[in-house]
Amino acid sequence: MQNPIIKQVITFLILAVCAAFSAGVLLFDVVGLGDQVKEISATEIIQEIFLLATAALFFIQSRKHKNLRGGFILAAGFFGCMLIRELDALFDYIHLGAWVYFASMLAIYSLCWAATTPKTTLNGLYALVEDEAFPVLLFGLVTILVFSRLMGLHFIWQAAIAGDHVKLVKNLVEEGIELFGYTLCLAAAMRISWVKKTGK
Predict the structure, then answer these.
(1) Burial class (CB in 10 A: 0-12, 13-18, 19+), 71
(2) Handedness of CA 160, 145, 61, 184 (dihedral sign)
(3) In which region does residue 37 sit, left (phi positive, over 0), alpha (psi from -120 to 50) or beta (all else)?
(4) 70 close to 110: Cβ distance less than 8 angstroms
(5) 3-state DSSP call for residue 171?
(6) Percentage of the chain modeled with pLDDT above 70
(7) How far apart are alpha carbons 59 and 124 in whole angstroms?
(8) Which residues, in sequence order, are CB contacts of 25 under 8 Å at separation 6+?
(9) How far is CA 59 from CA 24, 55, 109, in A?
(10) CA-to-CA distance for 44 and 169, rounded, in angstroms?
(11) Angle subtended by helix axes 69-86 and 42-64, to nearest 10
(12) Contacts of 78 (CB under 8 A, 6+ apart)
């Protein structure tokens, strides 16, 4: 068995790399590209790639492990819906707010599949929750869905910063935190997939 101290040091280093990577991408956007982290930016594109990769990893696991399929399809569907939401500007070319319809269809598909195979759904969810990487996945989701939203509240930055840079700073903070959350989720999904592949 691996030394628990070494194991936690490795975990710390992986999380530190995730944080540094997220900050580095934001720095590249702002300093390197002179961008303001709009819809088309390195930060946004990498967020979408990471979401796609996370959803794909869970979907692949659902195909490989029939006994866990329902739970992994729910996870894949959840991250797929998040990806569609991130691509809302693209779906707006079809119709304003069209992302809702596509996300709803994916959510219904995932929920119906989970409902028709309740045993594999429960097995899959238990397998996810019991995995050592699940707390990292959970922390990533809290970072994306709660912390980034709270830190992105306009009135906080309006009270702290004078002038016309309020929206810029708000976007930088919110998108940078979101990227960190997506990086954590992808790292956790990779770890879960590796464990399921090797049977550890």
Answers:
(1) buried
(2) positive
(3) left
(4) no
(5) helix
(6) 92
(7) 12
(8) 42, 43, 46, 179
(9) 29, 6, 13
(10) 16
(11) 160
(12) 110
Query: What DSSP string runs through 84-152?
Result: HHHTHHHHTTTSTTTHHHHHHHHHHHHHHHHHH-HHHHHHHHHHHHHSTTHHHHHHHHHIIIIIHHHHT
How many contiguous H segments (helices) and E segments (strands) does the chain have? Answer: 10, 0
Digit-coded pLDDT (tens) for 128-168: 999 999 999 999 999 999 999 998 888 888 777 766 677 77
CA 107, chain centre distance (Å): 16
Distances (CA, A) of 198 to 6, 65, 193: 21, 13, 9
| The pair of three-digit structure tokens given for residue 13, joined into one six-digit string | 């280093």
Round to whole Å and give the CA distance between 21 and 34.
18
- Asked if residue 70 lies in contact with residue 118, where contact means CB atoms within 8 angstroms, the answer is yes
Q: Count how many residues are written for the chain.
A: 200
Token reading at 153: 């509240």
Residue 67 DSSP label: G
